[in-house]
Fold this sequence. Notes:
Layout: E1 11-15, H1 20-31, E2 35-40, H2 43-53, E3 56-59, H3 65-73, E4 80-83, H4 99-126, E5 130-135, H5 148-167, E6 173-180, H6 187-191, H7 196-202, H8 211-222, E7 232-235
Helix pairs in contact: 1-2, 1-8, 3-4, 4-5
The structure holds NADP nicotinamide-adenine-dinucleotide phosphate (NAP).
Amino acid sequence: MAAMSTPHKKTAVVTGASSGIGAATAACLAEKGFDVVMGGRRAGRLEEVAGRSGGRAMTLDVTDAQSVERFVSELDRVDVLVNNAGGAVGMESITEISHNDIAAMWATNVGGLVRMTRSLLPLLEASGNGHVVNIGSIAGFETYPGGGGYTAAKHAVRAITKTLRIELLGKPIRVTEVAPGLVATEFSTVRFRGDAGKAAEVYKGMTPLTPEDVADCVAWAVTRPPHVDIDEIVIRPVDQATATDVARSG
Ligand code: NAP
């Protein structure tokens, strides 16, 4: 049976809402009055976040066509889609990176984003004021050693976002990219395959962004008047000038 939303409430779908930026965005949008549908693979974690924020948890693997189809079939209204599910795998150089890692990053950050967007466009358009927010990264316009697979995927996210803006011209759908620098989430633990020590090094001696800082940007973009499209927001910690220029104490 289709999950019914409260008629007067706008519905926001957030992918990758079981942790980090997605969880903070889901909570922030729920707080702003959205009916939030939260997707991710870890059902237990999603339920926890949904319990705290008041959203609806539905398991979702954005790399799996059937999972996306099932997820979308449960929705009868979508005003906002936040394509957040993604991340990096490994830090090997281009000469050493495995094709599996490249494929995994591509499948989530790029393929998943396209699949979710394509699947929800009819509902977004039907809402009369749809909004697609893609969580990109400064890796979408910068490069750094060991980041080849991830920066390629996030450059693609940026290209797709810009293409969408042109292809959707004339339809009532806004398109925004939010591109953060360093944010303290599970991102680095995932990237370093569970190595907490290596992950901690990434944020050592500097103050990273919090997931809530990024959620705030998403919430601001989606609550502008319907005729206003926030094309992109780049947000970095004060301690970070580029992907590799980071001020650290100690
Ligand atoms: P995170 O805490 O690791 O969160 C990643 C989220 O993506 C998790 O909720 C994970 O949930 C979900 N996810 C991964 N694969 C998925 C799949 N196949 N299907 C559905 N959900 C999936 O990291 P984060 O920093 O919040 O990352 C969120 C986004 O921000 C990513 O796109 C990342 O590239 C981007 N970003 C992060 C930073 C940073 O410094 N942290 C900077 C710039 C951009 P499940 O494992 O439960 O599926």
